[in-house]
Amino acid sequence: MNTRFGIKVIAETGDRFSGFAPYVASINNFGVVAFQAALRKGGSGVFRLDEGTAECLAETGDGALVEVISHPDIDNGGNVCFYADLSSGSQGVLGVVDGRLHSLLDARSLFKCIGPLGPTMNDQGAVAFRADTADGTSGVFVCDSTRVTPIALADSEFRAFQGLPVVADGGTVLFRADMVDGLGAIGIFRHGVISLVADTRDRFREFGRFPTMNNTGTVVFAGAVRDGGWGVFTANSKGLLQAIDAAGTFESVRGALIDGTGGVVFFGTPKGGSLGIYAGLDPVEDRVLGFGDPLFGSVIADFALNPVSINDAGQLVVRVTLADGRQFILRLDPCTALSTVT
User: Fold this and answer.
1) Do residues 280 and 295 touch, judged by C-beta distance below 8 A?
2) Which residue from 166, 243, 314, 333 could staple onto 341, CB 3.0 to 4.6 Å apart?
3) Residue 147 contacts residue 126 (beta carbons within 8 Å)
4) Cα 68 to the center of its chain, rounded Å
5) The dihedral of CA 327, 329, 334, 340: what is its sign?
6) DSSP 8-state class, residue 70
7) Is the pLDDT of residue 104 over 60?
8) What is the mean pLDDT of residues 126-147?
């Protein structure tokens, strides 16, 4: 593992947990981690770790909760939200706020299904999620304690949505969409208006599934340009900029994450190499971890992270599966600041 990061084991399979896949873990700005786990005794639950033993926030059989079906996102107060199958026979968005489990949304009256993937939340209690309405229309929505607001719907402009929407403090929502004219797009909802950050009309031919942004409003995404290869791009008040040109060294870049100061890590496949997480362009020196890397007496067979897996300080939380079958939730703490690209 890259010496620029320290490693902390948050959870591992054993007597208590039987698995963490297929969901990622999330982290807040205090380094507190939330994760979903299948339980050795049966069922599943949502857990939070600050120090010591992982605290169970909710598990199968608590109230209306039948099964956890997404990652949990966590805010800076330690509150979490996640998707669940409910005893009503529908799906919903549940929250644990101030230690109490409650329903943020029951899909019975409004939605056919919730998801896929998982929600994101901000520190004002707004939760962004994907769902299909009762008539089957896909969309991106935000809910809080009082209402559900549609952000973007599959109608005359958008055909479908990808990845997961990201809601920042203040209510700005970022999402990835397929357009009805066949283009791909990255859209942003701000002050009641949708604008496009980028699309595949001219410069780009493809995007990674998980664009994201930090609370300063800087957007980061992976993209392949029409006249070249993959790179990492940022968009903010300075405009749309190429932050990392990976075309010379990487076959593809699947996504990028950004911290509170504009520091970036990305996950991609170097030419002749295997998929990994990188803190820079050097396929060896800047590799954080990836497929085939030695770890805990075995090698990494799988890993997962997405926009909820980084905090403002550049700490990462990664779900890892080893070739011997063990699974881990790992927090990766940067020893030095991530390279700032904004």
Assistant:
1) no
2) 243
3) no
4) 16
5) positive
6) S
7) yes
8) 92
The one-character DSSP state at 72 is P
185-228 tens-digit pLDDT:
999 999 999 999 999 999 999 999 899 999 999 999 999 999 88
CA-CA distance, 95 to 142, in Å (whole number)? 14
Using alpha carbons, select from 256, 226, 254, 252 the residue that is nearest to residue 243.
256
Q: Which helix (H) or strand (E) holds 283?
A: none
Residue type, 57: L
Residue 14 tokens read as: 């054993």
The residue with tokens 């995404």 is 221
According to the model, what pLDDT value does residue 227 have? 85
Q: Comparing 76 with 341, which gets the higher pLDDT?
A: 76
List beta partners, residue 287. 278
CATH superfamily of 5-334: Peptidase/esterase 'gauge' domain (2.130.10.150)
Q: Collapsing DSSP states into helix, strand and coil, what is residue 281?
A: coil
DSSP per position, 201-250: TTTEEEE-SB-EE-TT--EEEEEEETTS-EEEEEEETTEEEEEEE-TTTE
* pTM of the predicted structure, to 2 decimals: 0.94
pLDDT band at 119; cut points 50, 70, 90: very high
Strands 138-143 and 127-133 come out as: antiparallel
The model's pLDDT over 277-300, given as tens digits with 9 standing for 90+, comes to 999 999 999 999 999 999 999 999
Handedness of CA 234, 253, 292, 48 (dihedral sign): positive
DSSP characters over 163-214: EEEEE-TTS-EEEEEEETTS-EEEEEEETTEEEEEEETTTTEEEE-SB-EE-
Least confident of 1-10, 80-89, 218-227, 256-265: 1-10
Rg (CA), the chain: 19
pLDDT-derived band of residue 337, with 50, 70 and 90 as boundaries?
low
> Which one-letter DSSP state was computed for residue 271?
T
Burial class (CB in 10 A: 0-12, 13-18, 19+), 14: exposed
Q: How far apart are CA 129 and CA 1, in angstroms?
A: 34
